[in-house]
Specification:
This protein is of the alpha+beta class. It has two domains: 115 residues, no CATH class; 136 residues, no CATH class. The protein contains two helices and 20 strands. Strands 7, 8, 11, 15 and 18 form a five-stranded antiparallel beta sheet that branches. Strands 12-13-14 form a three-stranded antiparallel beta sheet, with no helix packed on it. It starts with a helix and ends with a helix.
Length: 262
C-alpha cells in the first residue's frame, strides 16, 4: 500500500504539470504565431517481485511479476501546425505560409527565431519586433518612403520621392531546422537554437528549401484549438481525481490494518 500512495502521488504531480501546460496554451490562444505545447509522459522504474524470464522450474520460465512505480512528465512537444491568418491591413504585418521562422537579432547580438510577424519601424527606420529586436537581414525603410510593398518572396520595395521606379530595399529571409520542436522558447514570441534543433537552414521565401511564402498585411494566429484544450483540461482533472481516489483508498486500507492490531 505504500507503493500505491507514492505511485498515485506521481500521477497527481504529472497531471498538475499537464494542467499547467493546458493553462499556458489557453493563455496564449490570442498570441500571434504561438505554437501549442503538449506534455509527454513516461512510466517510471518497475519493482521486480519476480523478474521476467526467471526460472520457474527446470523446464519453464516465469512471465514475471513487476509492479510499476508511477509516471512522470518527460518532455514538452511543440505542435508545429499552421495557424489561421488574420488580416490586419498593416503594411509591416507579415504571416508565413509554411514552416519557416523570421530571424531577429537580440540586444546581446544573438539570433532568435519567431513566427510572430507584427513588425514595426524603430527610430532608425529598421523593421523590428514589438520588443525592438531587429529583423535579420536588416531591412531599413527611408523616412520619406511611401507604398511599402513586401512580396510573397520577401522582396521589400517602396516608392521614393524623385525616383521613377520603386526602390528595392532588401529581401527578408526565413529559417527552419531539422527539428524545430527542439528550439528553446524564451518568451517574447522568441525561440533559440539548441543542440536538439540542429543548425538553421536559411533561404528566401518561396525558395527551393520550402520554407514558405509571406503574406503582407496578415498575422498568423495561434494554433491553439480552445475546444481541444478544454477536453485536455477535463481529462487532466479526471486523471487527477482518480489518483487522488487511490490515495484515499490506500489510506482507508491502512486504517483497517491499524484496527486489526488494536
Amino acid at each position: 500500500m505504500i507503493r500505491a500512495l507514492y505511485t498515485a502521488a506521481t500521477g497527481m504531480s504529472a497531471q498538475q504539470a499537464n494542467l499547467d501546460t493546458v493553462a499556458n496554451n489557453l493563455a496564449n490562444s490570442a498570441t500571434s504565431g504561438f505554437r501549442r505545447r503538449r506534455l509527454q509522459f513516461e512510466d517510471m522504474i518497475y519493482q521486480n517481485v519476480v523478474a521476467p524470464g526467471a526460472a520457474a522450474s527446470t523446464s519453464t520460465t516465469s512471465a514475471g511479476l513487476q509492479i510499476g512505480l508511477g509516471t512522470r512528465p518527460v518532455s514538452t512537444e511543440v505542435v508545429m501546425t499552421q495557424g489561421e491568418f488574420n488580416q490586419t491591413g498593416n503594411q509591416y504585418d507579415l504571416a508565413i505560409s509554411g514552416p519557416g521562422f523570421f530571424q531577429v537579432t537580440r540586444p546581446d547580438g544573438t539570433t532568435a527565431y519567431t513566427r510572430s510577424g507584427n513588425f514595426h519601424l524603430n527610430n532608425q527606420g529598421q523593421m523590428t519586433t514589438a520588443n525592438g529586436d531587429a529583423l535579420t537581414p536588416a531591412i531599413t525603410i527611408p523616412s520619406n518612403a511611401t507604398d511599402v510593398t513586401i512580396s510573397q518572396y520577401g522582396v521589400v520595395t517602396a516608392t521614393i520621392p524623385g525616383q521613377s521606379t520603386p526602390a528595392q530595399l532588401g529581401t527578408i529571409q526565413l529559417a527552419t531546422f531539422s527539428n524545430p520542436g527542439g528550439l528553446n522558447s524564451i518568451g517574447g514570441n522568441l525561440m533559440l537554437q539548441t543542440g536538439s534543433s540542429g543548425t538553421p537552414i536559411t533561404d528566401n521565401p518561396g525558395g527551393s528549401s520550402g520554407l514558405g511564402t509571406l503574406q503582407q498585411g496578415y498575422l498568423e494566429n495561434s494554433n491553439v484549438d480552445v475546444v481541444e484544450e478544454f477536453v485536455q483540461m477535463v481529462m487532466a482533472q479526471r486523471a487527477y481525481e482518480s489518483n487522488s481516489k487511490v490515495i484515499h483508498v490506500a489510506d482507508d486500507m491502512y486504517s483497517q490494518v491499524n484496527q486489526l492490531v488494536r
